[in-house]
Write a structure and sequence with these properties.
Largest sheet: 4 strands, antiparallel
Structural class: alpha+beta
Number of helices: 11
Mean pLDDT: 76
Oligomer: single chain
Order of helices and strands: HHHHHHHEEHEEEEHHEEEH
Strand content: 15-25%
Number of strands: 9
């Protein structure tokens, strides 16, 4: 009986040891943030309000990997309230997902897509900071002719507000013709910055291994789902601005050329929305057509002309006006 009792004691002690190793505690200690977790729990136990525990949520002192693991171990609904009050980044299980969309009211937050900074001893040029090859020599005569060629009127488009522009694909075709595909490119020189309504980023145009120009692109968006498209549009906008330094489509920056083109190749028409029946004036090319959802607005009835005044009445009014 004594041996059986001892065996039972051994099993009981082993069970107690196994129960002491709690999975929750293991995960907390594995993140390296056990002290922060305990402070946060103690604060909430005393004050019963996560908003009063901002000081205990020191995200700036915790590395990204530790913060991610800590969020896994804590209850999502519990920590989210504390994060909102502390204005911390939103939690997510995927590190890359945290960096996809960042909303901000100013230009201080980005998409965390900062270009890779190369070591100073690296042989490759760091286009995020370097101005290598800028204005060292002129491009070949063939490249210059392709870049400075007069713009083709058929390629120019007119926006509804009367602004003339060259589609971004035309700029890429001109650069491909001048340097060849693969001999030029756009290198980002900073993070993509997302504001409440727009996306902006700085790019450098590199051609034949030389820096040509630096410009900042921008593009508006109307919903978070449109941010990826706005990021691509921002890149094309930067390309257009960089091409100014190469003389590509320089006519579109000349006010006299713009006025002449509008007078000879554009027109202003009244259109009506097919669904809302709202009418407005828009500009368009003379050889272009109105596209859905708009249609040409033609008044169905015109105001009747004002009847002419009899001669006797006109003379009477004229004499009375003297007094």
């Amino acid at each position: 009986m004594t041996s059986i009792t001892e065996d039972q004691k051994d099993r009981t002690s082993k069970d107690e040891d196994e129960e002491e190793v709690d999975e929750w505690d293991k995960r907390i200690f594995s993140t390296g943030c056990a002290n922060e977790q305990n402070k946060l729990n103690d604060c909430y136990f005393e004050r019963k309000d996560w908003r009063a525990c901002k000081a205990e949520i020191a995200y700036d002192q915790v590395e990204d990997t530790q913060l991610e693991d800590l969020m896994h171990t804590m209850d999502f609904n519990t920590i989210s309230e504390a994060q909102n009050s502390a204005r911390a980044p939103p939690p997510t299980s995927d590190r890359t997902a945290r960096h996809e969309v960042v909303h901000s009211d100013d230009l201080t937050a980005g998409l965390s897509d900062k270009p890779i900074e190369l070591d100073e001893s690296a042989r490759q040029v760091d286009w995020a900071r370097s101005f290598h090859g800028l204005s060292t020599e002129a491009f070949s005569k063939e490249a210059a002719e392709a870049l400075l060629a007069p713009i083709v009127f058929e390629d120019i488009e007119v926006k509804p507000d009367g602004i003339v522009y060259l589609p971004e694909i035309k700029y890429r075709r001109i650069l491909n013709k001048a340097f060849g595909p693969g001999a030029w490119g756009l290198a980002p020189r900073g993070e993509t910055i997302v504001t409440a309504k727009a996306v902006t980023r700085e790019y450098a145009l590199v051609a034949m291994g030389r820096l040509v120009s630096v410009a900042r692109g921008e593009m508006d968006y109307f919903s978070p789902e449109g941010i990826p498209t706005a990021v691509e549009g921002c890149k094309s906008n930067a390309l257009m601005r960089c091409c100014k330094d190469l003389g590509v489509a320089s006519e579109l920056w000349d006010p006299r050329f713009i006025r002449k083109f509008i007078a000879t190749h554009a027109k202003e028409v009244w259109v009506e929305h097919a669904q809302t029946q709202k009418r407005r004036k828009i500009w368009m090319r003379k050889d272009d057509q109105i596209r859905y959802p708009f249609k040409i607005y033609t008044p169905t009835s015109q105001a009747a002309p004002r009847p002419s005044m009899p001669t006797s009445q006109a003379a009477s009014n004229s004499s009375n006006s003297k007094y």
